[in-house]
Amino acid sequence: MQSLNSKSAKGLLKLFAFALGAVILSPLVSADTYRSGQHVEPAFEGWRPNEDGTFNLMFGYMNENWEEEPNVPVGDNNMFSPGDSDRGQPTHFLPRRNRFTFEVTVPSDWGDRELVWTLNVNGKERKAYGTLKADYLVDNMVIASETGSLGAGTSSPESRANLPPVVTVQGDDIRTIRVGQPLALRTHVADDGLPTPSDPVEQAREFAEFVGGPLAAALVTEENVRKRILMSPPIKVTVQKTNGLFLSWNVYRGEGKVTFNPQQPKPWEDTRAGSHSPWGTLWMPQTPPEDGMYDVEVTFDEPGTYVLWGRADDGGLYHDDYITVNVTE
After folding, report:
1. Regarding predicted confidence, which is higher, 146 or 150?
2. Phi, psi (rounded to 5 degrees) for 200
3. pLDDT tier at 241, thresholds 50, 70, 90
């Protein structure tokens, strides 16, 4: 019996080692294959009503590249129809899945018409079709579920009580700066403290125990979670999303290289990694500043007009603000 248990234990260890190796290697293979050259898939996320009778159609996208951040100006390759081709869509596309990136307001008499977003990136044209069909109605619970804060079809009194944070950029909405000159941004974020911040290390440990038992859970440390060794989700990328308030600044429009100091986490489920590389370290929730003020410096390498996108996210819900920066020689 002892020999059998020993063999079983060795078998489990081999199985776990194989599974762990697959978790480590699979993102490496995928990222190597899809670092660049892939298309961007526009996505219609749903719609929600406004108090004045109009409706907001909500869009996001999936950038199939792990690293490439394509720039596609508004025009034939990045347009809406019918009507105005510029509906406030991004022209700079962050890697991977970016949900609920922007909203387009349509009139109260929109009816059963469709609003079509067309993207052509790296030679592949894709379309997303916005509609007011009842199945696409979105509320805060749907947003929290879609972004990974809730399990599918689940809720709690805390999640139902959660309100979106409010982000307010201090100072002018339009700034002028020179190439290479740091731009200081101060942003105030107010939040209700919900949902309760989660511990990503404990999340990883629970998942490891579910997959491999106590032995696998014992191998989980903050260091290897930060290296994303055990953070590859089994079903979808939002499965291990971390709840916790943060502010993220990223480029929304503009083609030159932009550097943020400190480096900013990505707006949605990939806050586990840095915004510019799948090999970035895990974003661990930090205690928000007591006064709610977040400071970041932004430096531009090339002249041009840029739109910077600030998103406050509490893990379930979000709020956005933007500034325009004119960068001179």
Report:
1. 146
2. -65, -30
3. low
Q: Kind of pairing, strands 40-49 and 55-63?
A: antiparallel
Nearest alpha carbon to residue 108 among 54, 46, 48, 51: 54
Let me know: does 187 contact 310? Beta carbons within 8 Å.
yes
pLDDT per residue as tens digits for the range 66-116: 889 999 999 999 999 999 999 999 999 999 889 999 999 999 999 999 999
Of 240, 226, 269, 130, the C-alpha closest to 138 is 130
Q: How far is CA 221 from the centre of its chain?
A: 25
Task: Locate 163 and state its tokens.
Answer: 């309100």
E strands, 145-225, are 166-169, 174-178, 183-190
The tokens describing 1, both together, are 């019996």
Q: Apex CA 78: angle with CA 116 and CA 145, to 5°?
A: 60
Instruction: Give CA 250 to chain center in angstroms.
Output: 11
Do the strands 246-253 and 166-169 form a parallel or antiparallel pair, or are they unpaired?
unpaired
Kindly give, in sequence order, each residue whose CB lies less than 8 Å from that of residue 71, ignoring residues fewer than 6 positions away: 91, 92, 93, 254, 255
The residues near 16 (Cβ < 8 Å, ≥ 6 apart) are 211, 212, 215, 216
Helix (H) and strand (E) counts for the chain?
A: 6, 14
- Residue whose pair of structure tokens reads 């700066």 in the numeric block: 177
Q: Percent of the chain at pLDDT above 90?
A: 56
Residue closest to 69 by CA, chosen among 91, 92, 97, 88: 92
Convert the pLDDT of each residue in 126-136 to its tens digit. 999 999 999 99
3-state secondary structure of 160: helix
